[in-house]
Amino acid sequence: MPMSSSLRLGVNIDHVATLRNARGGKHPDPVRAALEAIAAGADGITAHLREDRRHIRDADMERLKAEISKPLNFEMAATPDMVRIALGVQPHAVCLVPERREELTTEGGLDVVGQRESLEPTIARFTDAGVRVSLFIAADPKQIEMAAKLKAPVIEIHTGAWCDAITDGELIKAENEWQRIAAGVKLAKSAGLEVHAGHGLDYATAETIAALPEIMELNIGYYMIGESLFVGLSETVKQMRAAMDRGVAKRARA
Ligand SMILES: CC(=O)[C@@H](O)[C@H](O)COP(=O)(O)O
Ligand SMILES: NCC(=O)COP(=O)(O)O
Questions:
Q1: Distance (Å, rounded) from C-alpha 74 to C-alpha 133?
Q2: Is the pLDDT of residue 48 over 80?
Q3: Is residue 37 part of a domain?
Q4: Within a domain: 254
Q5: Is the pTM of this model over 0.90?
Q6: What is the ipTM for the molecules in this complex?
Q7: CB 49 within 8 A of CB 61
C-alpha cells in the first residue's frame, strides 16, 4: 500500500467553476475536473456552495453527487437554506465554514464557541441524516475543545494564515502559526476528533503538514487549479500526491 494511503487528498474544484462563470457558459465543467482528479488519484472532491454562488452552483453539487465515485465534501455556511440544500444532495460529508459575502476567500475559522447554540441542532440534523460533519476552524484550543463537545466527528484546521505568512515572507508569524497548528492537531486527536486541514496549501506546505501524523485528509483547491493551467490537472494531482507522500515518509522517521 502506498505511504499516502493514510493521508487522503480531497481536491477542491471551486475555481474551475470560477473560470466557467467568467463567460456564463458550461466550459470548463467542474464535474469533468472532478472526474479527472479522481482518475489521477484524488480520494475525494470538495466543493463550496457559497451563498452568493460565485463559483459552484446548486446543479454542480447535484451532478457531483450523481457522477463521482469518491466521497463528496460539501462546504457550506450553516444557514437554514444551505442545510436544506445539502440534505437534499446527501453528500458524504458537509464542512461547515464561515462566510462573509464581501470576502475574497474564507478568511478565518468558524466561531464554534460563539455559535454553539445554533450549530448543535445543525450537526445533529446532518448526523441523523447519515452525513458526516466537519467544522472548519482555526487551530485555537477553545474552538477545538468546543468542536469535540458539539460531537462533530471531524474538524478541518484552517491553514490560510500559515500559508499566507510563508508567501509574504513573514517568518516569525509563519513559525507561530505552524506551532499553533502542530499543537492544535495533537489536542484535536486526543479529544477524539478526526483531523483534516486545508486552505491555501501548495506543494511545499502540503509536504510540510503531511508530516503531522494526526492529519487524515488535506483539502486543496486554488493552487492546484492554477497549476493545472501549466501542467494539466492529472499531473498536478500526481505531483500533489507525491508531495504528500514525501511528508508522510517523514512521519515514519519522526
Ligand atoms: C472553505 C475553503 O477554504 C474553501 O472552500 C475555499 O474557501 C475555496 O473557495 P473560496 O476561494 O471561494 O474561498
Ligand atoms: N477547505 C479548504 C479547501 O477546500 C481548499 O482551499 P484552497 O486550497 O482552495 O485555498
A1: 10
A2: yes
A3: yes
A4: no
A5: yes
A6: 0.95
A7: yes
Rounded Cα distance, 37 and 45, in Å: 8
Instruction: Specify whether 194 is catalytic.
Output: no
CA-CA-CA-CA torsion for 154, 160, 165, 166, nearest 10 degrees? 80
Q: Let me know if residue 251 belongs to a domain.
A: no
**How does pLDDT run across 191-245, given as a tens digit for each residue?**
999 999 999 999 999 999 999 999 999 999 999 999 999 999 999 999 999 999 9
**Which residues form the domain of 34?**
3-97+107-245
Residue 3: which pLDDT band, with cuts at 50, 70 and 90? very low
Q: What is the 76 CA–ligand 2 centroid distance (Å)?
A: 13
Neighbours of 55 (CB within 10 A): 22
CATH number at residue 144: 3.20.20.70
Cell of 185: 492537531
Nearest alpha-carbon partner for 165 in 217, 208, 209, 200: 200
Number of domain units in the chain: 1
- Please give the Cα distance from 126 to 105 (Å, whole number): 25
Per the annotation, binding residues are 12, 14-15, 23, 50, 55, 105, 200, 221-222
3-state secondary structure of 181: helix
Helix (H) or strand (E) holding 6: none
Catalytic site includes residue 75: yes
User: Is 48 in the active site?
Assistant: yes
- What does the pLDDT average to over 81-103? 95
Q: Determine whether the shortest distance from the Cβ of 77 to ligand 1 is under 6 A.
A: no
Looking at the chain, which runs of residues are DSSP E strands? 8-12, 44-48, 72-76, 93-96, 132-137, 154-158, 194-198, 215-220
Q: What is the pLDDT of residue 164?
A: 98
Binding-site positions for 1-deoxy-D-xylulose 5-phosphate: 14-15, 50, 55, 105
**Residue 102 placed within a domain:** no
